[in-house]
Amino acid sequence: MSTDPSKDPLVIFTPSGKRGRFARGTPILTAARQLGVDLDSVCGGRGICSKCQVTPSYGEFSKHGVTVADDALSEWNAVEERYQQKRGLKPGRRLGCQATVQGDVVIDVPPESQVHRQVVRKAASARAITMDPATRLYFVEVQEPDMHEPTGDLERLERALGEQWEIGEITADLSVLGKLQPTLRKGKWQVTVALYHDHTGGPARLIDIWPGLHEGGIYGLAIDLGSTTIAGHLCNLDTGEVLASSGLMNPQIRFGEDLMSRVSYAMMNPGGDAEMTRTVREALNALAQELADEASIDATLICEITLVCNPVMHHLALGIDPVELGQAPFALATSDSLSLPARELDMTAINPRARTYVLPCIAGHVGADAAAVALSEEPDKSEDLVLVCDVGTNAEILLGNKTRVLACSSPTGPAFEGAQISSGQRAAPGAIERIEIDPATKEPRFRVIGVELWSDEDGFDAAVAETGITGICGSGIIEAVAEMRMAGLLDPSGLIGSAAQTGTPRCVADGRTHSYVIHDGTAEGGPLISVTQGDIRAIQLAKSALYAGARLLMDEMGVDRVDRVVLAGAFGAHISPKHAMVLGMIPDVPLDRVTSAGNAAGTGARIALHNVAARAAIEKTVREITKVETAIEPKFQEHFVAANAIPHATDPFPELSAVVPLPAVSFNTGGGDAEGGRRRRRRG
Ligand code: FES
């Protein structure tokens, strides 16, 4: 800043409001840096990265007490002209490293020029993620070697980073050290490096190096590794933009649908754990490659992964035998977060020096996925008492407010994800995701993923021709069961009535029980999509487990009511609060107090990918969360049995009955329910 502040021009930055007086000729980027204004720069002011773009404003600003003259900034210079011709600058923009201060001026820093820019988490969410990733790019000019002053190239790179970017010590492993010399020479001593520097301190790691200015960007993967599905987001580590999102089935399903059956597979088969580890790592590589292809980027530009998963998946992905997680006291090999080279997880598809951050686990049954949900939904910052249910094959449940947060997991099984359901499938084009049943005619109408029209609307048949009608996904089955209950096709115990009892030929005999036919495509060679008695039982087991887990946390907290409910999970974005409540999945609250968070675990992984402070924060939060173990808690069984009816039999549900009257029907199918009744609940 100038030594004669009274005479020097005043520079005011918006939106930060930071201001200061600077000598004429000071570049805007320098002024911004001195004031601590968040203005980006990768090339360090050399006029080649265009990250420093700003918008000067001219005229009278009574709010700031300044008048900005037309010549408040230096004239458009050759560097800006070259950039304008090569790439084009938006109207009114200047390069902050080129334009210099000549008079009082107001400078706006547009969002894309802010280093710590905010990224909208998703359209429906007001909250944003502040960009502060662990891996960043730096353009640097390195001194050439000198025989008279012998130093290594790495040491000179380190010195240049210190001088030009205030970066302290760096470390480089052998594989990048081998690239260093040719790259420095190819770039004529100008290179771009990707450095990893996380919240734990210590030296920055050299992840990669490119000659000259690297314009291909760097990317990160946020992965939610679930028992049934693996979801991944490919994100730009500079802008935070999600370039591609994809999900695939976890191929470990062939070793067992739920977690406990995978633990038993590891127990019964020597080498079974290693086999499952290999399988899931192959899937993670395939997912990384698929996302890179979809975004048309080179997969080796993926420099970082954040991984969230339940404890069993955590151990299997890390190559640790999960056997201890199958028996009390359910000890984890480690519950702390991990920061590892991705190659230790055999991630060969991405950058060979990429890092992986695994969020901390909460307890032996409450994993890093629950930690990620806590990071995303922040129950620990809530004023009111919030119940967060992340519904998957294993439900992760959090209950709390800013004074205390409790967590447990509950073995819901894969039914909510459309697995173990006779017409079930994952949420993909062609799957029925919404359904309504007319209480008078008992006729269904539905919508399938990929088609906007309802099945009874004109044009539906043509619109659905491409995807077909292939099955029911998780949110579809929840709506189907709840709608069947509301339409009087299902009694409170969960029995489907016969055609005679319900008055619709859509209820067909199916052995000793009945099924409700939603869509019969057999005449055209398509599937018969129906809800069977077995499906109802699977959903009852799943929803009872979810409800019992929530109830257990409420007991522990000493409350009978919660203020609001957040539904999360792969299908959480689509789940209808009304149907969830008719089913008795969640405790009774006013319908407008139930919201969907979508894939909150995936969002948590994305937050941790983009913001290192969030990693430190969740590690602290996890240490403070009270863990409740459902597997050894006798009251869990009690709550589970009581929750079996649709909706819950003993909890009054006054909020629900005020808006959704449920018919008082009762069916008897001559013992057809015995098979379902004998089914054993399994942790999954
Ligand atoms: S800082 Fe790179 S162009 Fe200005």
From TrEMBL:
Boundaries of every 2Fe-2S ferredoxin-type domain copy: 9-113
Top-level taxon of the source organism: Bacteria
Pfam families: RACo_C_ter, RACo_linker, Raco_middle
One example GO MF annotation: iron-sulfur cluster binding
InterPro entries: 2Fe-2S_ferredoxin-like_sf (IPR036010), 2Fe-2S_ferredoxin-type (IPR001041), Beta-grasp_dom_sf (IPR012675), Corrinoid_activation_enz (IPR052911), Raco-like_middle (IPR041414), Raco-like_middle_sf (IPR042259), RACo_C (IPR027980), RACo_linker (IPR040506)
Signal peptide (residue range): none
Protein name: Uncharacterized 2Fe-2 and 4Fe-4S clusters-containing protein, contains DUF4445 domain
Taxonomic source organism: Lutimaribacter saemankumensis
